[in-house]
Design goal:
heterodimer, A: three-stranded antiparallel sheet, B: Rossmann fold, formyl-coa transferase, domain 3, six-stranded parallel sheet, 18 helices
Chain lengths: 400, 418
């Protein structure tokens, strides 16, 4: 009985950097065969981004690449040179899914747009994952993290009132794009089981980010109110904020009346329970500085760990403010064996962030990222039946 | 709304954001998603006007006679779903739920781990009723481990996961996101997990239990940063909007009030294009800004010069000048600008839906576009208990008398229970 949900699904991965690779990383983790097609000699630009060990650049040692390409096979191929050749046709025929994130129209200009590929393989599911989608006035705009944070409405609500807006942490736009592409591919695979037909899927990262507001957009559509930056305080209620403690900071989320009462009781400020300034979330927000003045001292002589344990015991939602190193020490993540060790010939043994969800029947399986062109022989000779001589010629021509 | 998942039935027990969004994406893809709410969990209390004004979540700040049907966020996350109320703290409610499980493919829940157990609705119980059922549980910290019962919201996980540590002004602490990503991230991971399980079920006939820790889901989307630390021991510094290598990267004030433009120069050709903009300060052409390292060293100076240019323009005009020259630039849109954006509008990203109690409103659409398939406008968000009768009679085959009895016993209804 198969333990791989995506067994026998072959994915041709033309994507690079972050968005597409996160999507295909998940496909690989759940059992698809992902063949990453990289530019000869150079490979995925993520190989040059780092961080690197001792800050020494090495295309086989970039953390960004190593994390985002677990479980994949790497072949090198000059797409421009092979676009209309039999070689690419053979690969397309074998594929169930094709993921690409070139600028709109690039594949069609090479003569390998979806229409052409669907003629070779009518069951093909092709995803184009771009900053702004395949059409519309911005389709040729330059995107990226900062631009997507800005245009999606996210940046406007991040930061201190009166200061410049802040882009969100990490590479969220790209990851969210990859997650939507993953959902689109799986929905298409499910539908293809019944109909046999393939699909073309257009995912715009700007739209992915715009669709992930909790209330910024719908609030405006309902009441005409524009959400603004609230700093490290929630805009609706208090306290939903950060307090300093002995060894760092904690996030206290006690915005409801019950939670705020519990907090005041816990810190011994029971007189404040009947203070009209603190009777509702909005009142506490108006008098936030006074409220903080009362409760802050309690935190100062305690550690993050102590505070979280006590507050959770009192059913007050408090979390540690973690920096990246804290994540590796966290006992919940460790108890659940979230971190997985993978060995890599260049980068060595390292702890990687594990599965974002656990499946009881078909658990994620991870293996290290491939070296550039590591699977050329396996794919071209064993799989597609090229001879050693033919492969030698392609190498000589710089095609692989 | 697409029809890719037609014929798949999902029981959605979730509340707030992450779970409801996951259910809605499945509904947008064509699954029959039954959103099940206990009326004891719905507030019927009158909301004071000053609170209504701060929340801004009701149509024109009027909660109306039935505020639970008029909340923007709930409505946003329940379009294309069927609305069923069911009290799970009484045996009749549990019985009806179990009968639905027998006829469904997926159960989605985002309670803390002990809740389903308290209802007597553990995965093992549900599996006995329907061996191929897929159950997706998405609590804050997962179903196991010493902190599994910790209470948390998206904002807690923003800080727990390290995401907040990656946002902030230089030399300042971790910064709260104005819109907590961990919820949205968990929603998308839940959709991915459920679809993966559905595909497996289609081919192998087996269901399974998905344990989605929202904390782990959030760490996974900064896994590259975590691995970077494991590799070289550097803790990423908070740099505002700057980039560790490329420059200039920043957010610059424009002509209008609280108007900003994000600019991210990442290649030498983009830099050359920027200094080639005709009215950009000429000093920027100085050789002392000739490469990324030099520009990093003089970043403050450069920011001032760039801002002396942006401040003269509306941020959309500045964006199109720079983008037409090939420079990555994005106007920092507020909610109103986002909804009016010409690009999103031309791509038909927004949906307009008429709701009997909330009126005609715009909503963000599904950002996954399948070509060659007709997109139906879909159904507006349901009223509380709108589909009680439909679900109980059409799906479970209850007689009108039995349905009336459920109403009389309070197992179903259309108003909150105080």
């Amino acid at each position: 009985m198969s333990k791989k949900a995506l067994q026998n699904i072959m994915v041709l991965d033309f994507s690079r950097s972050i968005a597409g690779p996160y999507c295909t990383k998940l496909l690989a983790a759940f059992g698809a065969e992902v063949i990453k097609v990289e530019e000869p000699k150079r490979g995925d630009p993520a190989r040059y981004e780092g961080p690197f060990r001792d800050d020494r650049p090495d295309p086989e040692g970039s953390a960004l690449f190593l994390y985002l390409n677990t479980g994949k096979k790497s072949i090198t191929l000059d797409l421009q040179a092979v676009a209309e050749t039999n070689l690419l046709k053979m690969l397309i025929k074998e594929a169930d899914v094709l993921v690409e994130n070139f600028p709109p129209g690039y594949m069609a200009d090479l003569g390998i747009g979806y229409e052409k590929l669907a003629k070779i393989n009518p069951g093909l599911i092709m995803v184009s994952l771009t900053d702004f989608g395949q059409d519309g006035p911005y389709r040729n705009y330059q995107g990226g993290r900062l631009v997507e944070n800005a245009l999606s409405g996210y940046m406007y609500v991040n930061g201190d009132p009166g200061r410049e807006p802040l882009a969100g942490g990490g590479e969220q736009p790209a990851y969210q794009g990859g997650l939507h592409a993953y959902a689109g591919i799986l929905a298409a695979l499910i539908s293809r089981q019944l109909t046999g037909r393939g699909w073309y899927i257009d995912v715009s990262i700007m739209e992915c980010m715009a669709s992930l507001h909790q209330f910024t957009v719908n609030r405006y559509a309902y009441s005409g109110k524009i959400q603004k930056r609230g700093g490290n305080r929630h805009i609706w209620s208090h306290p939903v904020t950060v307090y300093p403690c002995r060894d760092g900071h904690v996030l206290v989320c006690a915005g409801t009346e019950d939670q705020a009462e519990m907090l005041l009781t816990l810190v011994g400020e029971t007189d404040a329970l009947n203070d009209p300034r603190f009777e509702s979330g909005i009142q506490r927000l108006i008098h936030a500085d006074e409220f903080d003045g009362l409760v802050k001292p309690w935190f100062l002589d305690k550690t993050k760990k102590e505070i979280v344990e006590i507050c959770q015991e009192w059913r007050i939602p408090v979390a540690p403010v973690n920096e990246i190193p804290d994540l590796y020490e966290d006992e919940q993540l460790r108890a659940r064996e979230y971190w997985i060790e993978l060995d890599h010939p260049v980068a060595g043994r390292l702890p990687y962030a594990g599965a974002p969800f656990r499946m009881s029947e078909t658990p994620a399986v991870y293996s290290r990222a491939p070296l550039l062109g590591e699977h050329n022989e396996e794919i071209f000779i064993s799989r597609l039946g090229l001879t050693e001589a033919e492969m030698g010629q392609l190498k000589k021509d710089g095609v692989i | 709304m697409y029809r890719l998942l037609e014929g798949i039935r999902v029981l959605d027990l979730t509340r707030v954001w992450s779970g409801p969004l996951a259910g809605r994406i499945l509904a947008d893809l064509g699954a029959e998603v039954i959103h099940i709410l206990g009326r004891v969990t719905v507030s019927g209390e009158k909301i004071p006007p000053e609170q209504v004004a701060v929340l801004g979540t009701f149509p024109e700040d009027d909660p109306g006679a039935r505020p639970w049907n008029r909340m923007s966020q709930n409505n946003d996350f329940s379009r294309n779903k069927l609305g069923l109320t069911l009290e799970l703290d009484v045996p009749e409610g549990i019985d009806l739920f179990k009968r639905l499980v027998a006829k469904s493919d997926v159960v989605l829940e985002n309670f803390s781990p002990r809740v389903m157990t308290n209802f007597g609705l553990d995965y093992d119980v549900l599996k006995k009723i329907n061996p191929a059922i897929i159950v997706c549980s998405m609590p804050g910290f997962g179903l196991t481990g010493p902190q599994k019962d910790y209470i948390s919201y998206g904002v807690n996980l923003d800080f727990f996961s390290g995401l907040a540590s990656l946002m902030g002004y230089p030399n300042k602490g971790a910064h709260m996101s104005g819109n907590a990503y961990p919820d949205a991230t968990a929603a998308l991971h839940a959709v991915g997990a459920i679809l993966t399980a559905l595909f497996h079920k289609m081919r192998m006939g087996k269901g399974q239990h998905i344990d989605l820790s929202q904390a782990e889901s959030a760490v996974s989307v900064i896994g590259d940063v975590a691995l970077g630390f494991a590799l070289n021991g550097h803790v990423p510094r908070r740099r505002g909007n700057r980039h560790p290598v490329y420059a200039p990267h920043g957010c610059y004030q424009c002509r209008g009030e609280d108007q900003w433009l994000a600019i991210a120069v990442s290649t030498e050709s983009q830099w050359k294009a920027l200094i080639g903009i005709p009215d950009m300060p000429a000093q920027m052409k100085d050789a002392k800004y000739g490469d990324p390292e030099k520009r990093q060293a003089h970043h403050d100076e450069l920011d001032k010069m760039i801002e002396s240019w942006t401040i003269q323009y509306d941020h959309r005009d500045a964006m199109s000048i720079l983008q037409n020259a090939g420079i990555p630039a994005g106007a920092v849109f507020d909610a109103a600008e986002l909804l009016a954006d010409e690009h999103l509008c031309e791509r038909d990203f927004f949906l307009q839906m008429d709701h009997p109690e909330a009126g005609l409103r715009h909503y963000c659409g599904l950002p996954i576009k399948f070509s060659g398939t007709p997109v139906s406008p879909g159904n507006p968000p349901p009223l509380l208990g709108q589909h009680n009768e439909y679900v109980l009679s059409k799906i479970l085959g209850l007689s009108p008398e039995e349905i009336t009895r459920c109403e009389q016993n309070g197992v179903i209804g259309t108003e909150p229970i105080d």
